[in-house]
Amino acid sequence: MSRFFSQQHRHLEAYTPGEQPKDMQYVKLNTNESPFPPSEKALAYAAEAAKNLQLYCDPTCSALTKEFARRYGIGEDEVLFTNGSDDALNFCFMAFCDREHPAAFPDITYGFYPVFAALNHIPYTEIPLTDTLAIDADDYIDIRKNIFIANPNAPTGVALPLSEIVRIVESNPDFVVIIDEAYVDFGAESAVGLIHEYDNLLVIQTFSKSRSLAGGRLGMAIGNASLIRDLNTIKYSTNPYNVNSMTQAAGVGTLLDDDYTRLNCERIADNRVYLTSALEELGFTHTVSSANFVFAQHPDLDGGALYRQLKARGVLVRHFDKERIRNYNRITVGTREQLDILLKHIREILEENA
Ligand code: PMP
To answer: pTM of this prediction?
Structure first.
């Protein structure tokens, strides 16, 4: 830390992204990326857009907004595109939270929520998951806080039914309920269809997972026009050009290639069944995942040790050194070939540790 670093940020504990090591070729099952390349259309559209990189990008993302609004049956003023969904989530903390409107989220969830809260000096409450690592909607009824819920939750993969989300939204009418649907396409119910019914519901989605564009950084907030206007005020007060022109074009190409995204989601759902059954046979237990990852633990293997031994063998999974989940690893559902390599190494590690 330099002697110039602001007092305001000196104690900030920054978010630690999943590792992206370059020292060797890993089977990468640690950051929930898609194992499938972007759609051909996305690549072609991005290449075309690159020809005009001397110009600023469109700050309104108009082509992308039009195509998205048409496909999802919402108004063009009901969506805002951002630099990954992290950008949208940060905007939500900035726009809606303050001392009188503190934040609440589960104790085990996406690790960026407490960081955004701390960065913006927002008080927050972490609400414990149940013993089975699920969210109990009763814990969020009438709590008079802005609520952030990842659905499916991360890193557990456990989804909340839409009816439970509705109960939470209806019981906190004077606070915003932000549903982070980063993984929704892999098997959960989306709340997007409810945005016209509830003026306090905001849905966050991303192109990073099901749509194979993690490196392009494209996310969005979907909600009624006045919430989106507030987020735009934050965006135009920080970085109006937050989505570059190649990414905007890749986003349009991806939307036009919806069948490809759907097919990939089906492949991931099949591979999730393949992975969970194989892990069960090996003695693992796991949460019920509706996402593109599985959260699993073994009674005879320490979670951290398994992570380290897999890494030494060239397979990356994600381990969180956090009290309640220390024995677990989060494994991204990759291709069959990637999963077979992972399973082969797990079998060997189990034999070595027997
Ligand atoms: N929400 C959740 C629950 C996530 O796991 C992630 C990915 N790490 C994000 C949001 C952010 O994803 P991105 O910024 O790539 O859209």
So the answer is: 0.97
